Amino acid sequence: MMRLTYANGKDEYELLGQLRDRGEAVDKKVSEAVAGIIGDVRARGDEALREYTARFDGYCPEDLEVSRDEINDALSSADPEYVQALLSAQENITEFHTRQKHQSFVDMKANGVILGQRVRGLHRVGLYVPGGTAAYPSSVLMNAIPAKIAGVGEIVMVTPPGRDGKPNPDILLAAAICGVDRVFLVGGAQAVAALAFGTGTVPRVDKIVGPGNIYVATAKKLLYGTVDIDMIAGPSEILVMADRSANPRYLAADLLSQAEHDPLASAILLTTDEEIARETIAELGRQKAALSREAIIDQSLSGYGAAIVCRSCSEMVELANLIAPEHLEVVCENPMEYVGKLDNAGSIFLGQYAPEPLGDYFAGPNHVLPTSGTARFFSPLSVDSFVKRSSFIYYTREALEEAKEDIVRIANSEGLSAHANSITVRFDEQAL
Amino acid sequence: MMRLTYANGKDEYELLGQLRDRGEAVDKKVSEAVAGIIGDVRARGDEALREYTARFDGYCPEDLEVSRDEINDALSSADPEYVQALLSAQENITEFHTRQKHQSFVDMKANGVILGQRVRGLHRVGLYVPGGTAAYPSSVLMNAIPAKIAGVGEIVMVTPPGRDGKPNPDILLAAAICGVDRVFLVGGAQAVAALAFGTGTVPRVDKIVGPGNIYVATAKKLLYGTVDIDMIAGPSEILVMADRSANPRYLAADLLSQAEHDPLASAILLTTDEEIARETIAELGRQKAALSREAIIDQSLSGYGAAIVCRSCSEMVELANLIAPEHLEVVCENPMEYVGKLDNAGSIFLGQYAPEPLGDYFAGPNHVLPTSGTARFFSPLSVDSFVKRSSFIYYTREALEEAKEDIVRIANSEGLSAHANSITVRFDEQAL
Fold first, then answer.
1. Residue B163 confidence (pLDDT) above 90
2. What is the ipTM of this complex?
3. Chain B residues close to A366, C-beta within 8 Å
4. Number of cross-chain residue pairs from A and B with Cβ atoms under 8 Å apart
């Protein structure tokens, strides 16, 4: 069960070390195996892709691509209430992410100089969706919707075939709702390699997003640079800050919702009220018995869970900034006044009625968030994740002539005479 | 000297392969050496940092930090005309990058729901500046100015000591102009590791930017995730598109300005006019003799240079999009109409009077650009490179109740009953 400790400036650092180490695990054997698969798919294309699919998924479909009819069927045969739930989520996610979209800009100066930045969607993006019990339709929404808003030309989904050789119907449904363009029944490192290089069947993409197991994550890491990737996601985390106004039943439920993800998931409570800490721990025991993933919950709470009693709200804030959690709940009076103090968090949930699953599925902001303390410098997945920018410069002869002396001076200070020459050659018809 | 070829859909692919391979070189020996240095600096801090500095730079200053007086002296003792040149560049760079800055946003709905995205500068950023002949003051401007505009709290520069144990005065001058907060006389992989973990002397940073040799680049790559990095820069590139309106003297000068950077640098001319190709090649021979880095120019032009005669403007555009160059000059009539067609380029230079060095030093857009074809998915360094974002969500009881059914439905479809419980527990006082 979850431990109870008191903030003392020492135990928290130890806990922090434990959390960081979860994200840092690098398995040399996995790296070597994945590098082999990547090299093989690069060299032999579809032949290698089919061999690995048969070997790892137990079955390789004759046609690796899911037909448009099958995708449309997923939509027409689904439970209408479930479709409506996904459509409502889609509407909220679309509305929030549309606010993130940035325009190209241009500065046209009176002297004829034009400077600008063009922003446009990536040409083609690959979306990895795991199979089995980790097949989450919400992941499809959270990745595909910002890509669409960014103006991505084509979204290509890959997902491993199930044991029946078919795709997960909920995943196909989500793909149909979001307007995913093509779906291929391949998974693992071989699917990532196929997207990075292209094969006869699978088209090459510019960026690969979406969660996956250690093989998928390692393949993405190794191929970063050949292709862009979203981020290397570590195990999930929640940090809950609560003062005496909080309801321990709600706190426990929210901590459990994170703990059920994964034995390595982390759920931590910071509170200024020791009684709240004790009651929340008691509630955890009561509520978890009724949940479907109790064994996973027990492992994650005992391994990476803690209730830490703090001396003040500012100590809670300090610890939260130190931990830099993926999800941060502020269950305190006047929660809004904390936002400006919280420097490191992926997504912040404010008040009694913003449980973390609201953000996972429905509210609008993205659920693909930085983990393992990387909220110090990484940001949630966004429309910006799916665009590229180019700057452009137009100068007139007169404007360049005015800048000539300065540019030549800097070029010469750097010892780059050909840089200086490219300016002067335009004004000295006798030169060289 | 530069080769002359004709676009035929085959040679260009071969050339493309050669360009890509330059950026892909991974040296296993270097990786192992760098991993050793990183581990050592992490474990032993300043002690290891001093040992490596003495070993690799031949001298370890007693005080690793450059004093504020010394930085101020660099400004007061510099050539006033040179200072003015840097200040003019700073003004243009500041003006352009200020347009990139994005605000936090908030959506406050009529039902009391609040959704938002907070944007703020990173807490502390490390800026690597190489020593020796690759010490470029312009790099300091291009990295430090967007960081300042982003609201970065502290900029920490590291640069190796020169043979006299002192920093390069032009680098210190640029640091003073840009408001760099602290400067340390360390370089190489050991400096990158010190910034990533912090030592007794060097503070830990959230992101490391700036160019460096293979040891620096490898250290950044290995530490990505522990700290954020800008990008792994490959050798520099220019692609020039020219129609018959172009002046071969100017074209040659611009190609040379890129070729002088590095024996691996690439300078390619695409033109619809064979005569222009031939005259440009003749001009290259004429102009290079007067330049200071002729040996480097010869290597890069013969290794990675080419003049490719195309059958049409649209063939030039197609090839440019395929090559995805770092720098792209459009020296054609009506250059502006090409911008919307050019999908993959770091920075685009339009017309006869926008030579690439204008962008390196002066015009305003950033000169830190994606190389080796990565303009397909990467973007120039920008203010966005120095911010982090958090989303936030506030819901009322009524709004959550309205969303309840949808969220529970999605959670259950994903088999996550604790997610569903975190919603229902708030509305069913009897539950569990």
1. no
2. 0.95
3. 391
4. 380
